[in-house]
Write a structure and sequence with these properties.
This protein is an alpha/beta fold and about 280 residues long. The protein has a domain of about 190 residues: Rossmann fold. It contains eight helices and seven strands. It has a seven-stranded mixed β-sheet, sandwiched between helices. β1, α3 and β2 form a beta-alpha-beta unit. The longest helix is centred in the first third of the chain and has 29 residues.
Length: about 280
C-alpha cells in the first residue's frame, strides 16, 4: 500500500502534489487550508492539554498547512525547537527559521531524528503507513523520558455519510458521491477504520496516561470548503472509474456552493500519552 492509498481526506491532495498542473496544486492548497480550519482548534486544545510550553523540543510530523508549526513555534519560544518533517515541506518556507527547522523525512522508511523530544505530534500521516504500529514505536523512541506523544487520524468508517440528515435528493446525491470516494480507496486496499485503534496502539507501545477524544465537524463553513476541494480533486478518478458522472459532480458542487447541505466530515480521533 502506498501512503496515498490510506487517505480519505488527504488522498487527493497527495496525488495533486505529484502532478505539475496549477489546478491540482491550487486544489491541494485549498484542501490543506480547509482541513486546518476544521481541525486546528481541536489540535491546539489537545496540545495545550499535554502541556507544551517554553523551551520544549518538538517534532511535528507532516507539514500540513503550516498552522500547527507556527502555533508550536510561538509556544516553545526562542529557547525551544520545532523540527517539522514530511514528504513535502515547501509550504513551510516562510516559517523555516529558528526555532523551526524543516526536513524531508519518511516516518515509515527512515529512523527517527535523534536528540530526544518533549513532544512528538502527528496529524494524519499514519493513515497511509502500511505498518502503523512500527511508525508509532518510532515516534515513541524519539521521546525523552516523560515526553508526550499526540497522534491524530481520521476514521471515515465511523461516520460514512456526507449528509447525516438525508432528507432530500441533494443530500442523497452527496451521500452517494461520498460512498463513491470511499469505494475508490477501498478498491485500493485502504483501511478506513484506523483512527479508533490509536488509543490501543499508544498503550501497546508502553505509553502511560493514554487519553483520547474525537472531533466530528458538521455544518461548518470549512466542511463545505473541504468537500468542494476534495470532490474537484477526485473528479477525474470518479468519472474514469464509472462510479459517478460529470453531471452528478457538477450538480453536487453547485449544491455545496449554494449552502443547502449540512455537510459532515470524517471524525478525527486524537490520542495522547506519556513515555515513562
Amino acid at each position: 500500500m502506498t501512503r496515498s492509498d490510506g487517505y480519505l481526506l488527504e488522498h487527493q491532495q497527495t496525488e495533486a502534489h505529484q502532478q505539475t498542473g496549477a489546478h491540482q496544486q491550487t486544489g491541494a492548497a485549498e484542501h490543506l487550508d480547509a482541513f486546518a480550519d476544521l481541525f486546528d482548534p481541536t489540535t491546539f486544545r489537545n496540545l495545550e492539554a499535554v502541556g507544551v510550553g517554553a523551551g520544549w523540543r518538538c517534532w511535528e510530523i507532516g507539514a500540513g498547512a503550516g498552522s500547527v508549526v507556527s502555533w508550536l513555534a510561538k509556544k516553545v519560544g526562542p529557547t525551544g525547537k520545532v523540527l517539522v518533517t514530511g514528504a513535502d515541506t515547501t509550504r513551510l518556507a516562510p516559517a523555516a527559521r529558528p526555532p523551526v527547522e524543516a526536513r524531508i523525512h519518511d516516518i515509515e522508511a527512515e529512523e527517527p531524528p535523534t536528540g530526544g523530544f518533549d513532544l512528538v505530534h502527528a496529524r494524519l500521516p499514519l493513515l497511509g503507513v502500511a505498518d502503523r504500529e512500527r511508525a508509532v514505536r518510532s515516534m515513541v523512541s524519539a521521546l525523552r523520558p516523560r515526553g508526550r506523544l499526540l497522534v491524530e487520524d481520521t476514521d471515515p468508517a465511523l461516520q460514512p455519510l456526507a449528509c447525516p440528515d438525508e432528507y432530500g435528493p441533494e443530500q442523497r446525491l452527496a451521500n452517494r458521491l461520498r460512498q463513491s470516494l470511499r469505494k475508490l480507496l477501498d478498491d485500493r486496499g485502504a483501511d478506513l477504520a484506523h483512527g479508533r485503534a490509536l488509543p490501543r496502539l499508544l498503550r501497546e507501545t508502553g505509553l502511560s496516561e493514554v487519553r483520547a477524544d474525537a472531533c466530528f465537524p458538521i455544518a461548518a463553513p470549512a466542511c463545505a470548503a473541504l468537500e468542494s476541494a476534495t470532490v474537484r480533486l477526485a473528479r477525474d478518478r470518479l468519472v474514469t472509474a464509472g462510479i459517478a458522472t460529470a453531471q452528478d459532480i457538477d450538480r453536487h458542487l453547485a449544491n455545496v456552493a449554494a449552502g443547502i447541505l449540512d455537510l459532515a466530515t470524517a471524525p478525527m480521533i486524537s490520542a495522547w500519552g506519556r513515555k515513562p
